[in-house]
């Protein structure tokens, strides 16, 4: 299947599974799962296209249930009532966050906040944070002292595609990656 078609399907899936299921009459259960048959019908795509989109997504944004009858986004929801049932996990000592210079004053004052999402997204790899930051311009990479955060009682979760999630990151745990 052509690459642009897969990209377009991925964008639609992200939008509807993470932010606006109601726009196409989609119902998510409390854990963010939607019926595959409904997705196929509402997005006018085939099961093969959906399977390929999930398999080829470079960020592994989506997951099927064991029977491939349900699908959900792995993280990034702006829908507040979705519980992905991610257990509390112990992160590496340092995680990274990509942003751009224009947000740095506010971040270094107020820390990282989830904004419209449920969680702040962090990466174990500098390259991933750099890629995220570069979506809006020249990236600035922040180091997050997760060891201190954990010692101070803050919790982390990790999605099935390796994105680390936390409620917020106060500024005292942040430093610029040189």
From TrEMBL:
Keywords: NAD, Transferase. Signal peptide: none annotated. GO terms for biological process: tRNA processing. It comes from the Eukaryota. InterPro entries: Ptrans_KptA/Tpt1, RNA_2'-PTrans_C, RNA_2'-PTrans_KptA, RNA_2'-PTrans_N. It catalyses: 2'-phospho-[ligated tRNA] + NAD(+) = mature tRNA + ADP-alpha-D-ribose 1'',2''-cyclic phosphate + nicotinamide. Catalyzes the last step of tRNA splicing, the transfer of the splice junction 2'-phosphate from ligated tRNA to NAD to produce ADP-ribose 1''-2'' cyclic phosphate. Removes the 2'-phosphate from RNA via an intermediate in which the phosphate is ADP-ribosylated by NAD followed by a presumed transesterification to release the RNA and generate ADP-ribose 1''-2''-cyclic phosphate (APPR>P). May function as an ADP-ribosylase. The keyword Iron does not apply. This is 2'-phosphotransferase. One of its GO terms (molecular function) is tRNA 2'-phosphotransferase activity. Belongs to the KptA/TPT1 family. It holds the Pfam family PTS_2-RNA. Its EC number is 2.7.1.160.
């Amino acid at each position: 299947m052509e690459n642009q078609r897969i990209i377009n399907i991925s964008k639609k899936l992200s939008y509807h599974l993470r932010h606006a299921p109601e726009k196409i009459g989609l119902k998510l259960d409390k854990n963010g799962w939607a019926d595959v048959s409904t997705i196929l019908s509402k997005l006018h795509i085939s099961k093969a296209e959906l399977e390929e989109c999930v398999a080829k997504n470079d960020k592994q944004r989506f997951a099927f249930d064991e029977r491939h009858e349900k699908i959900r986004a792995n993280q990034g929801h702006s829908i507040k009532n979705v519980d992905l049932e991610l257990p509390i996990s112990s992160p590496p000592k340092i995680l990274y966050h990509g942003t751009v210079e224009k947000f740095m004053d506010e971040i270094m004052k107020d820390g990282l906040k989830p904004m419209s999402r449920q969680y702040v997204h962090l990466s174990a790899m500098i390259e991933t944070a750099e890629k995220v930051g570069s979506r809006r311009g020249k990236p600035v990479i922040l180091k997050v002292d997760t060891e201190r955060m954990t010692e101070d009682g803050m919790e982390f979760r990790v999605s099935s595609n390796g994105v680390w999630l936390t409620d917020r990151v106060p500024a005292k745990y942040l430093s610029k990656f040189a």
